[in-house]
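Input sequence (569 aa), recorded before submission:
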Amino acid sequence: MKFEELDLNNNILDSLYDMNFDECTPVQENCIPEILKGHDLMGVAQTGTGKTAAYLLPILSMIDDGGYPKDAVNCVIMSPTRELAQQIDQAMQGFSYYLDGVSSVAVYGGNDGNRYDQEMKSMRMGADVIIATPGRLISHISMGNIDLSRVSFFVLDEADRMLDMGFSEDIMKIASYLPKTCQTIMFSATMPNDIEKLAQSLLKNPVEVKLAVSKPAEKIRQSAYVCYTTQKLEIIKDIFKSGNLQRVIIFSGSKQKVKQINAALTQLKINSGEMHSDLDQTQRDDIMFRFKSGQIDVLVATDIVARGIDIDDIAMVINYDVPRDTEDYVHRIGRTARADRDGAAITLVNEEDMYAFRQIEKFLGKDIEKTPLPEGCGEAPEYNTSKNPRKTPAKDRRRQNRDETAHKKAKQHAHGRDEANPRNNRRNKDGEQNRQRNNKPQDGAQPQTDNQNNTERQENKRRDKDRRNRGRNNNTGEQSARAPRNEQGTEPEQGNNRRNNNNRRRDNEGGERRQDDNRNDKNRRKGENKGKRPQREDVVKTSAGEPKESGLKSMIRKPLKWLKSLGKK
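Predicted structure, C-alpha cell format:
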C-alpha cells in the first residue's frame, strides 16, 4: 500500500515525498488507519519495521488539521533511552517540515542547566509534541513546568524496554496526570505478561496489531563461530580482512568488554569507537554523529544502542558474546537489514554460551549456520548444548553445599563434637579433661559431683585471697593497732622490728668503714698522679691499663646504692 492511499494530511504527504517514502510497511499499513480513527492501539512488531512513522504520521496529520489547543501540550511520547528520544525527535523534524503550526521538544537527562531551561520554557509555552524519557519528565512534573491536563495523545515506544529498565511506576505516575479522554498508543517488540498487564491498565478497548512477534527480518544472513574466548579477536580480525566493511556494530553485554574490544581494534589500526553508559551525553552525541556520518567505521557498544537506533546502512552486526535472552538477540541483529537492505549477523559462541545460543535457535525455529574457524586460530570446541554451563555449576555447588552441611551435622550429632570449628573442639577437650581430673576418685573414694567441685573451688579462691592480703600487710610494714599474739604471748611485729634495727645498725657500721677506705684510696691516687696529664673524669685506668668507671658513672648506674651512702654520711 502507498502512503497516498491513506487518509493523511497533504503536508505530511509532501514531506514523505521529499524523503522518498512511497510504500508503507506492514505495521504502518495496519496501524495508521486505526490511529486516525481515534482508537487505542497495541502494536507488537519486530524492530526496523517503521514503528516510529506508524504513530508519528497520523498524530502529526491530525494536529495539523486543527481542533487542538495551541497553548497546550497535545502529545506526549515516552522513550526508554536518550538516544531513542533523539532519534524520534529527528524523525519528527523530517515529517513536520511543512507543518508550520506544529512544534516539538525532546526532554531527556544528562544535559546542562541551559538545556533544562530551554525544555522548561518550551513546555510552559505549550509545545505540541513532547518526546521525553520517564525520569526527566517526572522531574518537570514535580517542578510544575508542564501541564498534562489537556494532552490528547499518549505514546509508549519500546514499552517492554521501559519495563525492563524499571520505569513501570514512573509510567503509571505520568498516566495519572493525563485526562481520561486521552488516546493511548503502545508499541513493543515483545508481548510478555507485564506488557499485557500494563496494556490492560492504560488502554481502553485497544486494537491489537501483531506482526511477526520477536522474529528477526528474513533478509538477515545469520551465522555463528563456535570458538574459545581467546580466539574471538582473531576471528574479528579475519572478518575485517575478508571484505571492505565500513558500517559494523559490535555488541557486548559488558561495558568493560566494550572498552577492551575498542582498545584492541585501535591497536589493529581499525577506525572504531565505543558507546556505553560511562559516557556523558555530549560524548554519546559525538560518537553517534561520527558513526552516522561515516567518520567511524566500527561502533563497539552495549545494548544501549540495541533498540530504536535508526541507522539504515548498517552492513553487519557482530555479537561478541551471546545475549542474555532471545529478545536481546532479536533487537541486536535488527540494527541491520533495514529499509529494504540486506545485512549480516555473526555471533561468537564460546563454551559457556552454547546452551543460551541453542535456546535462541529453538526460538527462531532453525539451526544457525556454524562457520569454520579461520586458518591460524586453532581447533574449535565441540558444540555441546546438553547442559547450561551458566547455571549448572552454581546449582551443583548449592546441592553439594547442602549435602556437606547435612553430613557434618549428622557427624557432629553422632560424635558430640564440633568438627566445623577445631578451636571449640580443643576447648571442649580441655574442659572435659579438667572435669575428669577433678572427678578422679582417690584411695577408693567416690567420684565428686559438680556441686562438690564448685564448693572446693570457691574455698580455694577464698584462701588464696586471704594469703595475698596477709602478704601485702607484711610488705608495707603496717602494724595493726591490735596485733594478734602468738603462743608465747609476744607480738610478732615487735620481734621483727627488733631484728630489722640490728641489721640496719650493722649496715651503717660497714658503710662507714667502706667510706674511710675509699677516701684513703682517693688521696693515694692524687699523690701518684700529681704532675701528670689529667684524665677524663668519666674514665679512669686501672693499674692493668683497663678502663674503670668513675664514681659519677657508677653512681648513675647504681643510684639506689648512692642515695643510701649519702643517707649514711
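Checked by second reader. The two ends are 131 Å apart (CA to CA).
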